[in-house]
Each structure stands twice: as C-alpha cells, then as structure tokens.
Specification:
This protein is α/β, with parallel strands linked by helices. It folds into 2 domains: about 120 residues, Response regulator (Rossmann fold, 3-Layer(aba) Sandwich); about 70 residues, Arc Repressor Mutant, subunit A (Orthogonal Bundle), CATH 1.10.10.10. The chain is built from 9 helices and 5 strands.
Length: about 220
C-alpha cells in the first residue's frame, strides 16, 4: 500500500479536489495522479470524514465513490449539497451501473466517471466543472452587487424549517424574479435540477405556483 502524499504545500496549485473513497489504494492513486496535475487534493475514507474535512479544506470539486459502507455516496452528496449548494460533485461508479448514474444526478451530482478511471478524463472533468462553478459564483456575486442589499431578497427571508438550504437558495432567486435558466446559471446546476427542486418546494409548501411558494415561505419564517 502506498502512502498518501500531502499536496498542500505544492506551488502553483489552482484547483482543490476532495477525493472520497473507502478504498485506500484508490485514494492513493487519485492523490498522486491529481497532485501530479497541479491540483491540491485532500482524501477522505468515508462520507463523515468528507464532511469533517470541509472545516479546514474548501474544495473546488469533489470526486465521490458511490459504494461506501455507512454513509454511501448518495447520502454524502446530499449532505455536501446542503452545506455548499454550488459544489460540483463528480461520482465514481462501476461500468454499466445506470441506476447509480441516474440516482447520482437526482441527489445533485453534476457528472460521473466509470471505474477504473481514466485519469486524463478525470482531470479534464474536474477542471471543467470547477471552472464553471467559479464562474457561477462570480456571476452570483455580480448580481448581488447590482441588486444591492435593499433590493435583494436574502436567503433568510425565504428559508423555512421545511426547506433544505439548497431549496432555500433556489427560492431566494425565485423571489428575485429569476427564471429557472437564470437560477441554473447562477447556482451552477442544470435547469432540470432547478425544476426538480421547485417540485419539492411546491410539495412541501402545499402550493402550485412560484408566487404562492414565495408568499408561503415568507409567512413561515
């Protein structure tokens, strides 16, 4: 078994990647390969360890194994999404596991790679999604500056105990009059994912329209 190198001190690193896999050999391989591609990598052996790592490591993207004991990849993804709604999560799954792929997208994953992974493909996908996430954050910051504090609806104004933090963030942009396409661009997700969040929000709040959802969310704060 190879030791897992510490890449935190490598110069010129631009992309920070959190690797989550219960297999030590797989973690070691990805640490060496991604570190060699000038990425800063932190490895976690479980979903709980990945969540704990967020206290001291701010990843630009996550490579997440599906099959792990205890908290599996899907539960880990949902927990990551609740803490960082715009964090790109790329699932690692076995070849032909179509059900895993579909489920991964349903819980907020943005992409997947099949095992055994092709490292050039992994590097390209990580860089692409991390770059898009950075652009989305920059766009969101620009929109907030343009709206100004007096005109913007803060997340807290539509956050209710019934909504997850990610759903509350979607609702905040709905309250600002943004379309699903706008929200998708701002939050770095697909319009289909935005629509799925809205379906859950409408069901939780017992409403059928966007306007009614905003009003109901504000009443329950």
């Amino acid at each position: 078994m190879h030791p897992e190198p510490d890449t935190a001190s490598l110069p010129g690193i631009e992309t920070r990647v959190l690797v989550v896999d219960d297999n030590a050999d797989a973690r070691g391989f990805l640490l060496r390969a991604l570190g060699g591609a000038a990425m800063q990598v932190h490895a976690a052996a479980s979903g709980n360890a990945a969540l704990d790592a967020l206290a001291h490591f701010a990843p630009d993207a996550v490579l997440l194994d599906v099959d792990m004991p205890g908290m599996d990849g899907f539960a880990t993804c949902e927990a990551l999404m609740n803490r960082h709604a715009d964090l790109p999560v790329i699932f690692m799954t076995g070849l032909g596991d179509t059900g895993h792929i579909v489920r991964g997208f349903e819980v907020g994953g943005c992409d997947y790679v099949t095992k055994p992974v092709a490292i050039d493909e992994v590097v390209a996908r990580v860089r692409s999604h991390a770059g898009k996430a950075r652009q989305a954050r920059a766009l969101r910051d620009t929109v907030l500056r343009l709206y100004g504090e007096s005109e913007a609806t803060p997340v807290s104004a539509v956050a209710t105990p019934a909504l997850t933090p990610r759903e509350a963030e979607v609702m905040a942009w709905v309250a600002r009059g943004k379309t699903n396409r706008d929200i998708a661009d701002i939050l770095g997700m697909s319009p289909r994912t935005v629509n799925k969040h809205l379906e859950h929000i409408f069901e939780k709040l017992g409403v059928e329209t966007r306007t009614a959802a905003v009003a109901a969310a504000r009443r329950s704060v």
